[in-house]
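Ticket #4471: structure export looks truncated?
Reporter: QA, pipeline team
Priority: medium

Steps to reproduce: submit the single chain below to the structure queue and open the exported record.
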Amino acid sequence: MTIEPGSKHKRDIGLRLSVVARMLRQDFDRQVADINVTRSQWALIAVVARRPGASQRQIAELLEMSEASAGRLIDRLCAEGLLERRESNDDRRARLVFITDAAPPLLERLSQLAQAGEVRIFGNFSESELETFTSLLDKLYANLSTSS
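Actual output as written to the record:
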């Protein structure tokens, strides 16, 4: 049996990427624990803030989640007063999603936490290292995107 050159490094990188992704999620969860919002909720609110009047289907596609899951999350955020559904002028069956006045202050606070986290996490990286890292991640993403 022959072992492909660099295979140990590839396995180590794959494992480290998995561990780092988990650590990033856990770090975010700790940072926002007192705000009582999840990553999924933040992502959904941010999508709606950038695309006011998006449909549930569009939101689900943008977040790469099922329409049913997006619907449950939208329902919860509507109940919490952060989002609202409105009837579409073009299609009476369609309900479009908008942020409420309560959402921008939450998004601003989350943005501040994210920026502080980025400074902490990437603080000892040079601009050149960040560019190289981004380029390498882009390659990895492209390889994964074309393999499915």
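Status: closed, not a bug. The export was complete when the record was re-opened. Leaving a note from the reviewer for reference: The chain has a mean pLDDT of 90.
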